[in-house]
Sequence to fold (724 residues):
Amino acid sequence: MPISPQVSPQLSLQPFYTIHSRSCSLVVDCRGNSPAILYWGVRLNEASSPEMLSLLATRQEVQACMPEEAPIALSPELGAGFSGSAGVQIHRDGAQWAVYSQIQSVCVESNNRLRIVSQCRGTEIELAHCLQLDTNTDVLTATTQLTNIGQSTLWVDRCDAPCIPVPMHYNKILGFKGRWAKEFQTQSIDRFMGAYVRENRSGRTSHDAFPAVIVHSDQANESTGEAYGLHLGWSGNHHLRIEEQFVGRAYAQFGELFFPGELSLAPGESYCSPVLYGASSSTGFTDLSACFHQYIRENLTDPRMQGKPKPVHFNTWEAMYFDLSMPRLCQLADEAAALGVERFVLDDGWFKGRKSDRAGLGDWTVDATVFPQGLGPLIAHVNAGGMEFGLWVEPEMVNPDSDLYRAHPDWVLNAAPAPLLLSRNQLVLDLTRTEVQEYLLEQLDNLLSEYAITYLKWDMNRVINQPGNAEGRAVTHYQTLALYQLLARIREAHPQVEIESCSSGGGRADLGILAHTDRIWTSDSNDALDRLSIQKGFSFFFPPEIMGAHVGPRDCHVTGRSISMATRAGVALFGDMGIEANLLAMDDTEKAALKAAVALHKKHRPLLHSGKLVRLDTENYENSFGVIAADKQEALFSYGLLDGQPNSAPGRLRFPGLDASTLYTVNIIWPQQPSSYSKSILDILNGSVISGDALAKFGVQLPLMLPASLLVFHLVFHRRHSDQ
Ligand code: GLA
Fold:
C-alpha cells in the first residue's frame, strides 16, 4: 500500500540534537530543511552548547560561490544546490531527481541514538537517518533508509550512508590498497582539493579497495593526534569518497555502488544503506582501532563465541593441495595432533570430481574415489587424536564441469548476450533464486548433519563481474543480501559450526560479513614478512582473535622466500593461529620449535584474544606492536626486524600503554634461544624488574638481530611501586 507524502514540518522540533557515548559526542543540526552533523568528536563539556558551536561555525559569503552553501547534510541534497556528491540520487523516468526534504520527526533514545525522518514532496521519498554512539566503545553506527512514498517506480542510483563532515585540519588520508596475497596495505596521502575516490565493482569486498579510510590531522600517528576511522560494513560493491570542496570544507561519504538499473523501489518499498562504522580519536590510530576491536568483541561477535577459545588449526591446503589421500591425511592428522593442534581442516579437493580447480564446484558430496566410506573414517581419526574437524566449501560457485551445471546451466549470473567469463574455471550461482538458496542449504545441511563438523572455511574465489540474473538485471545488491541470509540460516540450523570468511585470502573482510561469520582468512600469503604488513593493515579495524594466521612452509609458496620457523611461528602466534604446511616434510628441529610456539600461543591466548592491541610507529625496516591486558598487569610485545638496519648498532624499543607505576618482570619468550653476535641484552634481560614508566619513556636496547627475525617480550606484573 503506497504511503502518501505528508510534508508538514513539525513545530516541536528542536534546533539541535546531541547524543553521547562514554567519550564522544555527536551534535546534529536540524535548523535547516535537512539534518546535518555539526560536531562529532571528543565528548563535549557540559559548558558547551550546540548554539555556541553553531555560532562559532558561522561562515561569511565568499566570492564566486552561493551566498550560503548547501549544507553537508546527512544526505546532501541536489535540490538544496549541493555541489558535491549528493547522498541520494534518484529519479522517476528521468524526472523528480531534485531531493529537497523537510524534517518530519526526530526521536532520541537512551541519550545515544537518534532517528530522524524527513520527507521530500518533490521526489516523493522518505528518508530515515539512524545514528548511534555505542556507549561503551564510542563507535558510531549510521544508516540511511530510503522509502518510496510515491505511486510510481523509484529508480535509485545512489543512497549512501550518512555523510560525515571532515574537519579541515584532518588533511591526511590513510587509505587501503592491495592485491591477492598482499591485502590491507596502507597508503598515506595528503588530502587535496578534489575527491579521493575508491570504487569496488568486484561483487565482493575486494583485495584492492578495502572499504575503509582514516582521515587525520597532520601530526597524527599511532599514539597522538586527531583522527576519524570510517568503515562500510558491506561485502558487495561500494564506493567511498573523501572530498575537499573548493569552498573550503570536506566530507566523507560511503555507500553501495549500483550497476545501471540495479535498484528500483516499488511504491511503499524501502532500501537501507549498509552500516557505516566510525570512530573518532584525539589520541592517535591505536585508540581508534581499540574502539573498533572492542565494538566487534561486544556487538558483532556471536554470543555462542563469546569467551570461547579459538582452536589452533591445521589446514591441508599448502600441505596437500588437491592431492588428497586417506593415508597421508591420517599421517598429517597424527603429526598435527602431536604438535598440539586442536582443529584439523580439510581444505579444497574433497568433493565429487574435484581433482583440480577445473571441476566439481557445485557438487557438494564426498568424492568416493578418495573417501570410499565418506568422511566418517577421517573424522573419527581426527577426533581420536583429540582434534575437531573442519571443512572447506565454496558454495556460491559452480564449475561448468559439474553435475549441478549440467543440470542447471541457467542458475549462473551472467551478462547475456556477452559470453560467460570464466575465472579460476568457475561461474557464480545466482543466490537470489530461491531454488539455488534451497539447493545450497540442503547440500550444506546434509554435510553438517551427517558429519561432526565444527567449522566451515567458506571460500569465494572469483570476482562477480557479470552480475546479471536470468531477467538481465544486475543483482549484486540482492546477491550480497542472499549470501548473508544463507549464512544466517546455516548458523541458525547448526550453531555448533564456526564459519570463516575467505575469498582468495582476504578478499571478503568487512564488518558486514563478520556479523555472520567467526573468523577471517587474512591472506593467501603465509610469508611471515609480508604477513607483518598485511596483519598490521588488518588490525586497524579487526581484532587479533578473528585474524586467521598460519605458519606456512619454510619456502613460501607465494613469494618463494625462505623464512625461519622462529619468525614464521612468531608472526602467526599473534592471531587466530594455525599451521598450513607439509608436516611430513618438516624436520624434527622445526617441529619442536613449532610445537613450542603452539604451546606458547595457547598459554597466552586469553591475553592475545582479549587485550588491547598497540601498534608502534616504526621505521620501514621494522615492525612492532603489543597486546596489553585490560588491567595492564600483563603484556606481550613483538619486535620484528624486516631488513638490515641502517646503523651499526640498533636502537631502543619502547613499550607504550603500560601502567607507569607498575613494576613488570620482563622476559624474552620467543624465539626459544635467541642469539646475538656478541654478549647483549639477551643475556641479562630475562627476569629483570622494570617500571612501566621506564619501559615507556626509555625502552630496551635491542640486540643485533638478523634481518627477518623477531623477538617477543613478555611483561608481567611484579608489584606496584607504592607497595614496597
Ligand atoms: C583459496 C583460498 C585458499 C585455499 C584455496 C583452495 O585460494 O584462499 O586458502 O582454500 O582457495 O582452492
